[in-house]
Amino acid sequence: MAVKEVNIVLAGVGGQGVVVAADILGVAAIKTGLNVRIRNVHGLAQREGSVYSHVRIGDGVFGPKIPPLKAHAIVGFELSEAARHLHLLNPEFGILLLNGRLIYPLAHYTGHVAYPSKEEILSKILASVRAEAVHLIDADALALRAGNPRTVNVVMLGALSATGILPFSPELLVEAVRERVPKFALEENEKAFWLGYEEVSGGRTREA
Amino acid sequence: MAVTLLEEPGKLVLMMGNEAIARGAIEAGVQFAAAYPGTPSSEVLANLSAVSKKVGMYVEWSTNEKVAFEAAYSASLAGLRSIAIMKHLGTHWILDPLAVAAITGVEGGLVIISADDPHPHSSQSSVDTRYHGRIVNIPVVEPSDPGEAKDLVIHALDLSEKAKTPVLFRYTAAVAHGKGPVKLGPIRKESRTPSFPRDHGRLVSIAPNARVNIPKLFQRLEGVRDLVGREPFVKRLGPSSGDWGLITTGVPHSYAMDVLASEGLLNSVPILKLTITYPLPEDQILGFLKSVKKVLVLEELEPFLEDQIIKLVQLHDLDVKVYGKNTGHLRRYGEYSPAIVGEVMRELFGINYVATPAFNLKKVSTSVQRRIPQMCAGCPHRGSYLAIKAALNRLGTDGLVFGDRGCYNQGANPPLDAIDTCIAMGSSIAMAAAARKAGENRPIIAVIGDSTFFHGGLPALVNAVVNKAPIVVAVFDNRWTCMTGHQPSPSSGVNAMGDNAPVLKPEDIAKALQVPYVKVVSPYNLKQAEQVMVEAIEAARKNGLPSLVVFRAECTLQVLRRLRKKGTRPKPATVDPALCTGCKECIKTGCPALGFDEELGKAFIYEDKCVGCMICAQVCPNNAIVRSG
Q1: Rounded to an integer, what distance in angstroms lies between the CA atom of residue B294 and that of residue A43?
Q2: What's the CATH code of the domain at B489?
Q3: Is A145 helix (H, G, I), strand (E, B) or coil?
Q4: Does B368 lie at the interface with A, CB-CB under 8 angstroms?
Q5: Which residue in B39, B179, B405 has the most chain A C-beta atoms within 10 A of its own C-beta, making it the best mutation to test that interface?
């Protein structure tokens, strides 16, 4: 399969599994025989910092960074982190997958930075992109339903898969999930994936 | 460790640049690897450490980068293929022995893996370490992606061994932490028997011997030039001539390719791609310069390559215009991106590439404030800082607190605002002592972690003692090198080979150095730690000598990791809303497990983040925080 370029931004905060999610997409790309480049920025992940990954798949891809306007999808594990990367989104075909959760940094509570409210930030985002581009899901609730709150990242991957922009099937992506999550949590992760998938596919049964 | 590190040859796998470099070292038959951890280089030795016994490689986390380099150099002289791995800041430390190694030459291939951080993401400066290779006259190579990095490690070791010179392998954060497909190659099984040469005229590098040997260094360098005029060191892409062309090295090469690909110009522009930037393969470069009228040089940080090319153009009186940093088109700092490279190509060569984000999207992106990093929930450093602040407060002064390099950097962030400096490894003690000697009269405290204490703090402590500087050295001993991913430190009791090792204690060293006041406290007992700090400050003043306090508690993340394996987790704390008055003393500790409900006017605790260290409970004036359950 010839694929020129699919660019995905994954953004969240430390502990949400952003880097593992990027790895899973990378493994799926290689399984499909596609070129891939990943850029992880996670210097202070353990210390409440921002974490993001650029995942670029296809023959037309060389470097690890997604330039402004070139992202096919932004997968926001957290609202303010999704907003931070919005300038990379292509305004015509870009898709925005949002977990409807806002994680305040401690400095917000102490008054050293001012974060917007969840409603404010969401309306700001919604006002700046095409309405049909946005999928808002409650990934934390779905992860809990899957039996493990730490599966938010895989819920988001399931949702991303259902948008149809990935150059591989959901089943193949699930295979990659199985390779990169802890052995003891396989079942929850697989469940999390399909919960995320169905949330975006509108409950339609998955394609074979 | 990368799950793919020891996969079969021929396989195509996803690897991080640092994993790919580790694999390259294994494929090349490296038998000796030494490193000091530092972002973005740490994962190279961390990966090798995980398989060292399996692949028959000796690995060590050395006390600092200079020791790491000297270790690898020694093993190389004994005939083994060797590598020393470090971040750019550490490469600054090795110049003295590196300059001598360049003069004596090497036996087994010797490569210094030096990770630059141009942005910088996690460094106090961002100097281009390619100049270190240039200063001491050794070859400098650089890859542009993980796959190339893996192969280039092998070529660099081959080159080193053939030309008998150390080689500097410079790469940047985008390659180190980037991931891409890596085609695995065969693993060269080396089991050389080390034999250290006795060669006084060469290895006793006193001045008369150095004078004899220095000319040989330049002969070796000429020998290198003969070896690098071919792939993979120099490669031509695109048509054989054109109006304009590119000379590229490192990760900016891939950005140029991204731009050309998006403009449908992939095979229409002449490109000379270099993985060696010193000494240059001059014939190939001259040939290229004669085939274009304008050339843009793309490299990250300084015009290291560009300056050499301008020199060639001038020496050979060529009719080609060289663009880049000297013409003001590109900057000498920061990471590049396709957008930066594309803009310059549009300006110079009239391509159509545009990467300017829509105004409304950019407005949202830039409206989000930076997420200020904090020390982790339950981090012992929080208690140490609170005790220091409380002690200074009790003495009626804000004092001066010199910080150092490690997780405890985050103590500089609000709300703690607990340190006044953060310079380089070990600088806290040296600068604190000097501030006192310079006449600064406030209580002076130097805060330093255990790994940093052993790395660069020791000579400064000796200095503070013999020069009689009445300061307090506060060693935050959490038993690991945590900022870079929990590598063993001399206080861990384990080494990179996975073997048990003696646990070194800063308090024992201080006693041996005749420091009169030495105490060990738990940072989780705020009252006691505060009392010890007050005593230490007063003792320093009375003795006219340094005091040393060790705040000892293992890194919370390491403790939690072990508990998780057992399937347990400490009970979190909880706020009793009936007792909470909303004074916010607890959140001023900077613990990310705490929050504040403005509507209710009460603090609360995120139970999924809290690990029950109970530090916040000790600062609560109303005893509103208790352990839950």
Answers
A1: 39
A2: 3.40.50.970
A3: helix
A4: yes
A5: B179
pLDDT tens for residues B457-466? Answer: 999 999 999 9
E strands of B238-323, at which residues?
A: 242-249, 271-274, 276-278, 292-298, 321-323
Residues B546 and B577 in one domain: no
Could you tell me which CATH number the domain at A6-201 has? 3.40.920.10
- How near does any CA of chain B get to the CA of A56, in Å? 10
How many C-beta atoms surround the C-beta of residue B333 within 10 A?
13
Do B280 and B301 lie in one domain? The reply is yes
Is pTM beyond 0.95? Reply is yes
With beta carbons under 8 A apart, name residues in chain A contacting B372. 48, 105-107, 112-113
- Indicate the domain borders of chain A: 6-201
Mean pLDDT, contiguous 10-residue spans, chain B (629 residues):
85 97 98 97 98 96 98 98 98 98 98 97 95 98 98 98 98 97 95 96 98 97 95 98 98 98 95 98 98 98 98 98 98 97 97 89 90 93 98 96 95 95 97 98 98 98 98 98 95 97 98 98 98 98 98 97 92 97 97 95 95 98 94
Residues B90 and B34 both lie in one domain: yes
Alpha carbon distance B457, B550 (integer Å) = 14
List the domain range (segments joined by +) for residue B88: 12-227
CA closest to A37 among chain B residues: B180
Is there a single domain that holds both residue B222 and residue B238?
Answer: no
Residues A64, B368: C-beta atoms closer than 8 Å: no
- Residue of chain B with shortest Cα separation from A12: B371
- Partner B contacted by A164 (CB < 8 A): no
Instruction: Judge: B339–A105 Cβ closer than 8 Å, yes or no.
Output: no
Chain B contact present for A16, CB below 8 A: no
In eight-state DSSP terms, residue A113 is: S
- Same domain? B449 vs B396: yes
Q: Does A26 touch chain B (CB under 8 A)?
A: yes
Q: Where are the beta strands (DSSP E) in B359-416?
A: 400-403
Residue A27, class by beta-carbon neighbours within 10 Å (0-12 exposed, 13-18 middle, 19+ buried)?
buried
